[in-house]
Amino acid sequence: MYKYSKKNAKAYNQLGIAGTTYEPGFNEVSRVLGDLSGKIALDFGSGTGRTSQMLLGLGANKVIGVDCDESMINQAKRLKDDRLEFTLIEDKIPLGDNKIDVALCTHVFIEMDSLDKMERVSREISRVLKPGGVFIIVTNNPEAIGHEFVSYGYKKKDNLKSGDKIICTMKTKNAFEIDDYFWTENDYKRVLIKTGFTIKSINYPKASKGKWFEETKVAPHLVIECIK
Hints:
The protein is α/β, with parallel strands linked by helices. It has six helices and ten strands.
């Protein structure tokens, strides 16, 4: 997976939700999850803590953020809230079985270069998620390659097939590139079904009001809602 330098992690941390390309996807997550009062949430691939704060905003009692990138975790740990807990991990989530009510994984699968890695992560999330718990994935819309968005854009590449590397340019103050990988909706579905999840919905949210580039015409993300 891509590793963020301290400089790039700091730049990424400047991106919020409102007015960024992430807004339509995260709005869909909020709609699907609704009120999380009394819930414990896992933010897998929590990055700088933006999505963890979103989960708190939905009412979660506690959010456990885990990430394999030290630079991103160090940025997240600057957030001072007793309801937030951030941990650097390698493979295993430091929780027992059936401990989490809700799990969220945003823009993580797109950085994985194999379906095997996705399966391992999905199985580990399933392990810590309570039976009947909700697992939501936000990832890149396969049709978004070559389109320009406010916060990032993917370089056009023809004849893409599953697992091909794609380059994402982050439009922060100091722009930088991320190595991502191309996966289809069917790739994600196969992984989730194989690891025991029931897919409840798949949505491609577009932006509506606001100052956008192509976000109103092409959904930047797909949002997958699953049940354990």
